[in-house]
Design a protein that fits this description.
- It is a single chain.
- By secondary structure, the protein is mainly α.
- It is about 60% helix and about 5% strand.
- It is built from 15 helices and six strands.
- A hairpin with a 2-residue loop joins β5 and β6.
- It starts with a helix and ends with a helix.
């Protein structure tokens, strides 16, 4: 019989077999709950989503980045208000031969030499706030806001398409395995084998000539849906493969075996048991995909394989302003800065969201804290 002191020092085993959401947030792989104490009163925390919310609220940099992203989105959504009530012009309206009255002085929007007017700020009542572009004399501020709408639309909708395809293919491949897994994995490998930019350029140029005709779907070459679909498809393997790996691990867990033993259907197991465990991964991937999609859209549009005229985006504005890089660098700097701020804010928030949803971050923190406490109070 062991001594009494050893009995008192023995810890109780950690229970296993927790619910489906436990594997996704704040829980170790064996089902042990990670308990986080409330600051101040020492009460135990709530569920894993509440724990993740508190972690995210403590990350001020991530919240500040999210606020910047929302500010950019709101400004772009208010593009018609600025165009109709301030600038009094549209994104594709040319002002080549017009003259502007600024503080009693007459200025040409586009000089005979071809140089466009520079930023006027509020001196002209909001007109040509950031100047005019190139030889056509279009309002740069109006084009920036409308171009942002196109870039944000492509980034967010393409991320939704990628998420939908990746979750569907990942569930089918990881759960059924066998021939289904082999068939889907080989398709993903084919797409994966091509560099994203090169594959996007090839598809973009091919569809920019005659548009897309697929059954009842007919899209013109200038439609924003063409670059959106291209970007959504080429990034699918980069999300589907990690999800497939997680599903392969989760389907061996006890709660899946229990569901099978109870006679649950495959659809119920995939969408009720497996899918909730993937929510944290899906959310993080979706957030980071928005930034990647916007960068790829800007690259394709700059190379002429993305957004086609008369539509505009930040990528097309950089391409158009490149011809006047030395005489008017602001035409390239402004949309480039807009892309930088948007992508940086999304990436920083995505990193903060990943840290908040990481089930092992708290465990590592507690392990370090426990080690430090033992060093401070040696036996």
């Amino acid at each position: 019989m062991p001594p009494e002191s050893e009995k008192q020092g023995t810890e109780a085993p950690i229970p296993t077999g927790t619910g489906a959401l436990d594997a996704g947030l704040g829980i170790e792989s064996d089902g042990a709950r990670v308990v986080e104490a409330e600051a101040g009163d020492g009460r135990q925390a709530g569920g894993p989503w509440r724990i993740a919310g508190r972690r995210l609220r403590r990350n001020k940099v991530a919240l500040f980045s999210l606020a910047i992203f929302f500010l950019i989105v709101i400004c772009c959504l208010l593009a018609p208000v600025w165009a109709n009530h301030v600038a009094d012009t549209g994104p594709n309206t040319t002002h080549t031969l017009e003259k502007l009255h600024v503080n009693g002085e007459v200025r040409e929007v586009v000089e005979p030499s071809g140089k466009a007017i520079g930023p006027q700020w509020f001196e002209a009542g909001g007109k040509f706030f950031l100047g005019a572009d190139g030889h056509l004399g279009r309002d740069e501020m109006v084009r920036l806001l409308y171009g942002g709408r196109s870039s944000l639309f492509i980034g967010i909708v393409a991320a939704l398409i990628t998420t939908l395809l990746a979750v569907t293919l990942g569930l089918l491949s990881g759960y059924y395995g066998g021939l289904t897994d082999t068939f889907i994995s080989r398709i993903m490998d084919v797409i994966w084998s091509f560099p994203v930019v090169l594959l996007g350029i090839a598809l973009g140029i091919a569809l920019a000539v005659g548009g897309l005709k697929l059954g009842p779907i007919h899209l013109k070459s200038s439609s924003l849906w063409i670059p959106t679909l291209i970007i959504g498809v080429v990034y699918t393997p980069y999300m589907a493969r990690p999800l497939r790996g997680e599903i392969l691990a989760l389907r061996e867990k006890e709660f899946i075996e229990a569901a099978v033993a109870q006679g649950a259907s495959d659809r119920r197991i995939m969408f009720i048991e497996l899918l909730p465990n993937l929510l944290s991964t899906i959310i993080v991937f979706f957030t980071l995909n928005i930034a990647n999609n916007m960068l790829l859209e800007a690259t394709l549009s700059y190379l002429g394989a993305g957004v086609q005229p008369p539509s505009s985006s930040w990528g097309t504005m950089i391409s158009e302003g490149f011809d006047a890089l030395y005489s008017q660098p602001i035409l390239t700097i402004i949309p480039g800065t807009a892309i930088l701020l948007t992508v940086l804010s999304v990436n920083v928030f995505g990193d903060g969201l990943r840290d908040a949803l990481d089930p092992k971050s708290k465990v590592r923190f507690e392990a370090r804290a426990g080690t430090a406490a033992e060093m401070d109070n040696p036996v």
